[in-house]
Amino acid sequence: xxxxxxxxxxxxxxxxxxxxxxxxxxxxxxxxxxxxxxxxxxxxxxxxxxxxxxxxxxxxxxxxxxxxxxxxxxxxxxxxxxxxxxxxxxxxxxxxxxxxxxxxxxxxxxxxxxxxxxxxxxxxxxxxxxxxxxxxxxxxxxxxxxxxxx
Amino acid sequence: xxxxxxxxxxxxxxxxxxxxxxxxxxxxxxxxxxxxxxxxxxxxxxxxxxxxxxxxxxxxxxxxxxxxxxxxxxxxxxxxxxxxxxxxxxxxxxxxxxxxxxxxxxxxxxxxxxxxxxxxxxxxxxxxxxxxxxxxxxxxxxxxxxxxxx
DNA sequence: ATATTAGGTTCGTATTGCGAACTTAATGGG
DNA sequence: CCCATTAAGTTCGCAATACGAACCTAATAT
Lengths: 150, 150
Fold this sequence. Notes:
The structure is a homodimer. By secondary structure, chain A is mainly α. The first copy, chain A, has helices at 5-11, 16-39, 44-53, 60-67, 71-83, 105-126, 131-149; strands at residues 87-91, 99-103. Chain A has a single domain (33-149), classed as Winged helix-like DNA-binding domain superfamily/Winged helix DNA-binding domain (Arc Repressor Mutant, subunit A, Orthogonal Bundle), CATH 1.10.10. The first copy, chain A, has a two-stranded antiparallel sheet with strand order 1-2. In chain A, a hairpin with a 7-residue loop joins β1 and β2 (99-103). The radius of gyration of chain A is 19 Å and the shape is globular. The first copy, chain A, binds a DNA duplex through α5.
C-alpha cells in the first residue's frame, strides 16, 4: 500500500530509479518480442539464442552464460533449433571439447524477418518520444552496451 | 556478413537503431533478472508476473495480455504461485466471470528483496555511464513508459 | 427466451529448465 | 610420461512452462 516507489525514489541511491526503469522497459519490450516470436512458433528463449547468434559464433558454454541458463538447457535448445534448420553446430578449432554454434542461412532469413517485425511492433512505443529524445536514447543505450564489453 | 547495422543505420528509418538498442538492452537486462530469479527458484515468466502485480491488481486476462501469453498459461502460473503463497485470487466486483490477482504480503516481501538484488546486479551496467547520462536515460525511459499508458 | 460472446479452467502434449551422472578432451603435478 | 583433476557437452529423469482444444459459467445481444 502507501505511495510505493515515488517516495523512495527521491530519497536514496541515484541509480535506483534507473534500474527500475530499465527493468520496466525490458518487461514491455519482452512482451512485444514474445508476441512476435509466438507467431513464428518460437519461444522467448529461442529468440534470445538466435539474437545472440546474429553477430557471434559462440561455443555452447558462452551461449548459456549470455542467457543466464545452464549448459544442459542450452543443449536441448540447440538440438531442437538444429532439427528445425535454424542453427548448426561445428567443432571448435582450438579446443577439441568445445562446440561452436552459428545461424544457418535459413536462421538468418528468419531473423531478418523478425527484426523488421520487431521494429514495427516497437515503433508505437518509440514514437511516444520526440525525435531528439529518440536520438539521445539510442546513443546512450549503445554507449552503455558498448562499454559493457570492455 | 558485411558491416551489418552501421551501414544500414545511417540510411533509412530513424528508429531502426533504437529498436535494436532497446532489444539488445532488454536481452542483457533479462539475463541479469533471470539469474537472480533462478537463485530464488523463480522463472523469468513468474518474475514478470510478480513485477506487474507490484503496483496493479489486474484480472487474469489483463495479466496474460501484459505478458503476451495465453490465458491458460496464466492459469497455470497463478495456480502454482498461489500454492507457493506469493499471490492470491479474488472474484472481481463488477464482473462475475472475472478473477482479480494480487500479491500476498509474502509476495511483496519477496519482490522487495528481488528489487534490491536487481539494483545491485544492474549497477555495473548502469555505472558504465557518466552520472549525467544516467539521469537523462532514466528520464527518457520513464517518459516513454508513462506516455505508453495514455 | 435464446444465441452469442467473454473470462477462466481443465486436459493433453510439446517445450523449457535444471540436478545428477556420464563421456571425452585439456591441464597439472609428480 | 602417467594419473588425477578440471572443463565442455551430452543424456536422463523430473518439474515448470506454454499452447490448442474443449468445456463451464456469467454477461450481452437479439
